[in-house]
Amino acid sequence: QLNQKHMINLVLFGKPGAGKGTQAQFLKEKYNLKHISTGDVFRYNIKNGTALGTLAKSYIDKGDLVPDEVTIKMLEEEVDKNPEADGFIFDGFPRTVAQAEALDNFLESKDMKVDATIALEANDEVLIERLLERGKVSGRSDDQDVEKIRNRFDEYNLKTAPLKEYYEEQNKFHSVNGIGTIDEITLRLTKVIENL
Ligand code: AP5
């Protein structure tokens, strides 16, 4: 089901801590894809003190989503910076139905599309444990305490979870068990991708 440009565009979906960023590192090498993590782009801007970073920080520190308008514009710029890419892994985007609609329209305008959305499934207890552990070493402001992590889960349940239905209606939704070793999970994901 590769599209006209023989690209493959994947959305990695899942709650905070589900392993999207970790798995994207392996998949981007294997399939020669450009990995775009909106969280990473925001953190890069925060670190460099840009206007975008200052704006995003106020939301990220609380575990709230950054407004759609800002995030959509940023994502489109990231795609446009990579005209030679064989395809993209979108990690942490879309996170709202408005973002998913914007992504579909934007890709369509470039003769591209989302080929599959793959969700990594894990329960909240496992995710909280992973995030608190990472917070200790990375210093990520939104991993520091359980209250912020729970707020990120609430944002996910309210605004991001409805995307499952959005992609199911397009027959593009797949899910894999996100608990196990990193290698085991990569294998589950590659099975889904190779069956597309
Ligand atoms: P973002 O950076 O996207 O954070 P997130 O969704 O909360 O995702 P994480 O990075 O926490 O988790 P992940 O699924 O990538 O897991 P990872 O591989 O890192 O977003 C941060 C914030 O930016 C948002 O809250 C929001 O404010 C803003 N934002 C971003 N995108 C936005 C958007 N589209 N719209 C609006 N706002 C947006 O793994 C987590 C940990 O677990 C790591 O330490 C890892 O080593 C470990 N781990 C991974 N896999 C395993 C495994 N199999 N076993 C054991 N440990 C594992």
UniProtKB/TrEMBL annotation:
<keyword id="KW-0479">Metal-binding</keyword>
<comment type="subunit">
    <text>Monomer.</text>
</comment>
<keyword id="KW-0460">Magnesium</keyword>
<feature type="binding site">
    <location>
        <position position="43"/>
    </location>
    <ligand>
        <name>AMP</name>
    </ligand>
</feature>
<keyword id="KW-0547">Nucleotide-binding</keyword>
<feature type="binding site">
    <location>
        <position position="99"/>
    </location>
    <ligand>
        <name>AMP</name>
    </ligand>
</feature>
<feature type="binding site">
    <location>
        <position position="180"/>
    </location>
    <ligand>
        <name>ATP</name>
    </ligand>
</feature>
<comment type="function">
    <text>Catalyzes the reversible transfer of the terminal phosphate group between ATP and AMP. Plays an important role in cellular energy homeostasis and in adenine nucleotide metabolism.</text>
</comment>
<keyword id="KW-0808">Transferase</keyword>
<keyword id="KW-0545">Nucleotide biosynthesis</keyword>
<feature type="binding site">
    <location>
        <begin position="17"/>
        <end position="22"/>
    </location>
    <ligand>
        <name>ATP</name>
    </ligand>
</feature>
<feature type="binding site">
    <location>
        <position position="140"/>
    </location>
    <ligand>
        <name>AMP</name>
    </ligand>
</feature>
<feature type="region of interest" description="NMP">
    <location>
        <begin position="37"/>
        <end position="66"/>
    </location>
</feature>
<feature type="binding site">
    <location>
        <begin position="64"/>
        <end position="66"/>
    </location>
    <ligand>
        <name>AMP</name>
    </ligand>
</feature>
<feature type="binding site">
    <location>
        <position position="152"/>
    </location>
    <ligand>
        <name>AMP</name>
    </ligand>
</feature>
<dbReference type="GO" id="GO:0004017">
    <property type="term" value="F:AMP kinase activity"/>
</dbReference>
<protein>
    <recommendedName>
        <fullName>Adenylate kinase</fullName>
        <ecNumber>2.7.4.3</ecNumber>
    </recommendedName>
</protein>
<feature type="binding site">
    <location>
        <begin position="92"/>
        <end position="95"/>
    </location>
    <ligand>
        <name>AMP</name>
    </ligand>
</feature>
<keyword id="KW-0418">Kinase</keyword>
<feature type="binding site">
    <location>
        <position position="38"/>
    </location>
    <ligand>
        <name>AMP</name>
    </ligand>
</feature>
<comment type="pathway">
    <text>Purine metabolism; AMP biosynthesis via salvage pathway; AMP from ADP: step 1/1.</text>
</comment>
<comment type="similarity">
    <text>Belongs to the adenylate kinase family.</text>
</comment>
<keyword id="KW-0963">Cytoplasm</keyword>
<feature type="binding site">
    <location>
        <position position="134"/>
    </location>
    <ligand>
        <name>ATP</name>
    </ligand>
</feature>
<keyword id="KW-0067">ATP-binding</keyword>
